[in-house]
Design a protein that fits this description.
Layout lengths: L2 H24 L14 H5 L3 E4 L3 H6 L1 E2 L3 E2 L5 H8 L7 E4 L4 H12 L5 E3 L4 H6 L4 E2 L1
Parallel strand pairs: 1-3, 1-4, 4-5
Antiparallel strand pairs: 2-6
Length: about 130
Amino acid sequence: MTPYFNLRLRLLPAALLGTAIIFAAACGGADTPRPSAAQVHAAYDRGTVFVDVRTDAEWSAGHVKNAVHLPVDQVDARATSVLPAKDKPVVLYCGTGRRAQSAAESLRQLGYTDVTAMTGGYADLKAAGYPVVE
């Protein structure tokens, strides 16, 4: 083996680790808090905007009362018209938490500063006693 090839083999693990760290930081990483339905109840009671990022069909089947509907695939195009105040707290929910996390990252990239993607989803909110529209 050539010295150049050996050097590349030695640097490969460091390069992969660096890529993983950058990816984790870009995706919110493990440090981004993901509260449960019970943990965000006080925010709901204070009037924090709850955003349902599920599909139209899921929304029509039931959603949290006073929630804003913004499907995850429309966040980039419609967020500023649906959520004009970028400094106000926003709690996102979906079915399981995955789409809420994706939408939260998009909102942060758009300049929203107080965005929370909760764990769980609509069923958890309903089970926790939130008022719902069905």
